[in-house]
Design brief:
4 helices, flat, mainly alpha
């Protein structure tokens, strides 16, 4: 999408500018509110549209940060798949019986090595 609209994408991972950060936060919050409103109106089509738009903004944000979202997605999903389903809503910090919790010894994903690898790869491409 960035190529199509001729929006420059960085050559290596970096933090967004303040302006781009603010824009993307507003846009993603708008999509969350659209999802909320569509849910409240029982409009499944608009719910799906809002969630897909949210994914587009999130993916595009990673792209504008110079990050390969697919590799980082795999890292996060591996960590998430090591979690356990709560047996009781009281185990959930969200009070939900459909939540996942971190078992003893669970480790959060560390993106450092991937980011360093992406930075090194893009420097030599």
């Amino acid at each position: 999408m960035h190529d199509y609209y001729q929006i420059e994408v960085p050559g290596s991972p970096h933090q967004l500018s303040d302006e781009n950060f603010r824009f993307r936060m507003v846009a993603m919050n708008e999509e969350l509110m659209e999802f909320f409103n569509a849910y409240m109106n029982c409009n499944l089509s608009e719910q799906v549209d809002a969630l897909v738009d949210l994914m587009v903004f999130a993916s595009g944000t990673l792209d504008l940060m110079g990050v390969n979202g697919e590799d980082h997605w795999d890292l996060v999903m591996k960590a998430n798949m090591a979690k356990k389903v709560v047996k009781d809503p009281n185990e959930s910090k969200r009070g939900s019986g459909i939540d996942l919790v971190k078992p003893p010894g669970w480790k959060a994903p560390d993106h450092t090595d991937l980011l360093l690898s992406e930075k090194a790869q893009k420097r030599f491409l």
